[in-house]
Design goal:
By secondary structure, the protein is mainly beta. 4% of the residues lie in helices and 46% in strands. The protein contains five helices and 32 strands.
């Protein structure tokens, strides 16, 4: 038995002080710290090697002041600092596992490698990560006539630091294609490697400053019409790595044989800070980000029963993710690293055919003589950051149809442009041999992560609402949404949404389609009903029957979109996100199939060699979701301040089974079947009772 212990300490303090009727001050401080012991230390014979405490924690302090200068002028100032830290260490010395499982000689006997793809992982790592955000906010609110104005500034100073010696004994990944078995363990037992990665770690010290200026005005044009006007300026600089750990690569420089003057062993086309033509931070910032806001509210007939509201705005995603240059600092010359996709050597000898067995050392990191093991990994940008921009808009009609009853109809839409994505700039050409030997820029260069901002997505919806405000002990709120979400992007910069490489015509068509959150229909209703009092004068019956409340919430949601994938790199590009192909057989499940057979597996097959498949993104939708929760509460009042509440709560009262999407990997196990329940509504019926004392 191995224990897993976690201790969390959380401390919070707050102070509020009124200096005068016009000046209020507050301060808040939070400190938390968590220690984790995963139990691995209990297996180690050496007491010194048994220590594995991974402290994680942070500090947060906020100071704010609100000053009423005059009756129509208010000043608000706020300053804050948030800091997080994470220290991790795995002590594997003395386990003897490397020898026991027959690991190759490149793995030191006192270290464990990282073995992935669903296999048991034996990581050996040590390092620290810290992040820090400082915020300054300063604004003035001013009332004058028909105008209610606010203007000010906001600034965020961000740090991201990483000192991580990750898996220096190697990272081994195994495919599922060597044996036609869905489990990687089969290929692992045969020693067939999909990729091998070994390096000295990841070290970075990123800094960024994100300023913003804003002005807004609520303008009451007339008694029945109000306008909301605003403008915000949000420039976006790139991350600044304090020690110059950036890379800059262009295909033109590679083909022209341009070499770095900073690091003599770098391959052609790979340049660094200080080389001619290289931006200081690897890319230029985006400094023309002006975002407008507009809104209005119109009382159509002046009786307060019918209104038309609308608005539109531009919203910039100003902050770059810290992962945006992880690859750049985790590669030569900042980290001596070798990464090979499908190496010629097996698990027992991944360095087969190479002469740089002892190259992975700390000795030459960052020096002009730093080694660059081929193929060299790269991270580069498209020259200039373009800040992701989302346009949101809506138009709403509201009408009081009966006393306390409100009906609402709205059109809500959005369009997002310049979404951040990572593309593979150095894909492999179709053919035989290892993936790295077939890359466009082989043998000098291997995987090239190319960060760019060219993703887009669109959302359109009709939203209907019926709301009865609380009266006569009853209230209900019902909403129905009919929507569609399309695009080629729906996540963070690291989302795996590239199928065909950049040099394939119409590559974008493979990733454009219904997004994962494309739920066409959604209906939600909630209610609260204070049950009528029984007509009785009996004190016992009054106590038993009076004071009951029933409430509940029900929801229906149509199935989400899913994509059928091949599970094979038959396109032979090294991207390994090929789609399945249609076979001509109907995807409808056979008659009499159980509910877990969502589609006919015979309708799909792995894509042909040299192709990317024919099934589009989000071409099919999964099971719908239906849930119904209810509760009954009874309050016993003893005094004005003391009462006891009895609670009976029922979740998924009809015991509805809500399935998750089916398995969509043609090469995987259970293809076409549903093997799990919905992550947010997969529980069976749950009934619980409770007592709550209020005093």
């Amino acid at each position: 038995m191995v224990s897993n212990k976690r201790d969390l300490n959380n401390h919070t303090a707050r102070v509020d002080h009124r200096f005068s009727e016009e000046n209020n001050f507050y301060g808040r401080f939070i400190f938390y710290r968590q220690f984790t012991d995963n139990g691995l230390r209990n297996l180690l014979p050496d007491p010194l090697a048994r220590q594995r405490l991974d402290p994680f924690g942070g500090r947060n302090i906020v100071l704010g002041d609100t000053h009423t200068i005059t009756p129509n002028l208010v000043h608000e100032f706020r300053i804050g600092l948030a800091r997080q830290f994470f220290t991790f260490q795995v002590a594997s010395a003395g386990l003897g596992i490397p020898q026991q499982i027959g690991l190759p000689p490149i793995v030191p006997p006192d270290q464990l490698p990282l073995i992935g793809n669903g296999l048991p992982a034996f990581p050996d790592a040590i390092g620290t990560r810290t992040s820090q955000v400082g915020q300054l906010f300063d604004s003035f609110s001013y009332l004058r006539g028909k105008h209610s104005m606010k203007f000010g500034t906001e600034m965020r100073l961000v740090q991201a630091n990483n000192l991580q010696k990750t898996a220096p004994s190697g990272n081994f990944q195994f495919p599922t294609t060597l044996t036609d078995n869905a489990a990687p363990i089969a290929d692992f037992l045969l020693g067939g490697l999909d990729s091998f990665d070994q390096g000295t770690g990841e070290y970075k010290n990123n800094r960024a400053t994100y300023p913003a200026l804003f002005v807004q005005d609520d303008f009451k044009v007339a008694q029945r019409l109000t306008l909301n006007l605003g403008l915000r300026y949000e420039p976006t600089p790139p991350w600044h790595e304090t020690r110059g750990r950036i890379e800059y690569f262009t295909i033109e420089n590679f083909r022209n044989g341009v070499r770095s003057s900073q690091f003599k062993n770098a391959p052609p086309g790979v340049l660094f800070r200080g080389d001619p033509g290289v931006p200081e931070d690897g890319a230029l910032g985006d400094y023309n980000n002006f975002g407008g806001r507009f809104g209005f509210a119109w009382d159509v007939f002046g009786d307060g029963k019918t209104s038309v509201r609308g608005g539109a705005g531009m919203f910039y995603d100003q902050h770059l993710l810290g992962e945006f240059n992880n690859g750049g600092v985790n590669a030569p010359p900042w980290s001596v690293r070798l990464s090979v996709t499908r190496p010629p050597g097996p698990f027992s000898n991944p360095y087969l055919g190479r002469n740089d067995f002892n190259l992975i050392t700390l000795a030459a990191i960052g020096s002009p003589d730093a080694p660059f093991p081929r193929p060299v990994l790269l991270t580069t940008y498209d020259g200039k950051h373009t800040t992701p921009l989302t346009h949101n808009w809506n138009l709403t009609l509201e009408r009081e149809i009966f006393p306390s009853w409100l009906a609402r109809a709205a059109y809500v839409g959005s369009a997002s442009n310049y979404g951040r994505v990572v593309k593979q700039l150095n894909p492999a050409r179709p053919g035989t041999g290892s993936t790295d030997s077939r890359r466009l820029f082989a043998p000098e260069l291997g995987n090239i992560d190319y960060f760019t901002e060219d993703r887009r997505s669109y959302y359109h919806s009709m939203q209907l609402t019926l709301n009865k405000r609380l009266s006569q002990g009853f209230t209900v709120l019902a909403n129905y949404t009919w929507s569609k979400a399309l695009g080629n992007y729906s996540g963070s910069a690291g989302e795996a949404n590239e199928v065909a490489p950049w040099n394939v015509p119409n590559a974008d068509s493979y990733v454009y389609g219904p997004l994962d959150f494309d739920y066409r229909h959604r209906f939600v209703v909630s209610w609260v009903w204070e049950l009528p009092k029984a007509p009785t004068d009996n004190a016992f019956l009054k106590g038993l029957l009076h004071g009951w409340q029933a409430n509940g919430i029900g929801q229906y949601q149509s199935g989400g979109a899913y994509t059928v994938t091949s599970g094979r790199d038959n396109s032979q590009t090294g991207i390994n996100r090929d789609r399945a192909k249609f076979t001509g057989v109907s995807p409808d499940p056979a008659s009499g199939s159980d509910k877990t057979v969502w589609f006919n597996p015979a309708a799909f097959a792995v894509n042909d060699v040299g192709t990317f498949g024919t099934v589009g993104r989000g071409a099919f939708h999964g099971p719908h979701l239906f849930s119904w929760d209810m509760g009954f509460f009874k309050t016993f009042r003893f005094t004005e301040q003391v009462n006891l509440q009895f609670r009976a709560e029922m979740f998924n009262i009809f015991n509805q089974v809500n399935f998750a999407n089916p398995n969509t990997n043609v090469s995987g196990g259970g293809f076409g079947r549903i093997t799990s329940t919905h992550p947010n509504a997969g529980d069976p019926r749950i009934i619980q009772f409770g007592l709550k004392l209020n005093f």
